[in-house]
Amino acid sequence: MKRFEYLTLEVDTSGFWNNKIDSQQLNDKLNELGREGWEVTSTVDLNRPQGATKGLLVILKREIG
Questions:
Q1: In the chain, where are the structural domains located?
Q2: Is the dihedral of CA 45, 58, 40, 19 positive or negative?
Q3: What's the pLDDT score for residue 55?
Q4: CB distance 15 to 52 below 8 Å
Q5: Which H, E and C letters describe the chain, residue by residue?
Q6: Cα gap 15→48, rounded to integer Å
Q7: Which residue, 16, 25, 34, 60, has most beta carbons within 10 Å?
């Protein structure tokens, strides 16, 4: 039976009015984790009470052993 371990990565936005995610920085981090065997399984949009994006929660997994 396959066994997995999981990792959550919280990605914050920058700016007060123009909430943006630095896509190059995110790509670099995901590529780094991919080289370590991590695979993205899902992403969740984290919202502020007014509906603006606060950030992303990225969920990754990799097989153990």
A1: 4-63
A2: positive
A3: 85
A4: no
A5: CCCEEEEEEEEECECCCCCECCHHHHHHHHHHHHHCCCEEEEEEEEECCCCCEEEEEEEEEEECC
A6: 13
A7: 60
The answer to whether residue 6 scores a pLDDT higher than 80 is yes
CB atoms within 10 A of CB 9: 16
Token pair in block for residue 5: 């371990």
Taking only the tens place, the pLDDT of each residue in 12-50 is 887 666 678 888 989 999 999 999 999 999 999 888 777
Predicted confidence (pLDDT) at residue 56 exceeds the cutoff of 80? yes
pLDDT of residue 16: 63
